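So, can you check these tokens?
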Amino acid sequence: NTPSFYAYGTSVTTLANDTLTRITVAGEQFDNGGCYNATANNATLNGLTSSPSSFTPNVAGLYFFTAMLHLNHDDYNVGIVNNKGGVGGSETYVALSYRFSDTANSTVMVSGFSVMNGSGNQVCLTGYQASGGNKDNYNSIYTTFFGGFLVKAS
């Protein structure tokens, strides 16, 4: 089911208070089809502009995405966002999970389906927290990851 990818955290992302933040997932386990941008800058992949840590498939169809984020805080949001920043269309949520915990060091996993147009819309992992200050995520293959694959082409 190409294109498909799996990326994991290799560096800390600081989530500013009360701000939707793109999470850096730059370690590629695999990228079948070359549609995942694991760099810190915009890149052209298969003729399409892709934002940092974003998946920009060149095949239209239904996709499945999954992601996980670990944050040392007791309540925060983790989402898979379609078109953060408006590239290829307006910003919409593919999936958003809200986690409230009485203890810090919790992990939130989200997943969802999205129809991708194959001509520029993209998906990224995001986090949101409102602790009153900045918070850093944990950044390893076991605590921060993002992946997805084509289920069926249009």
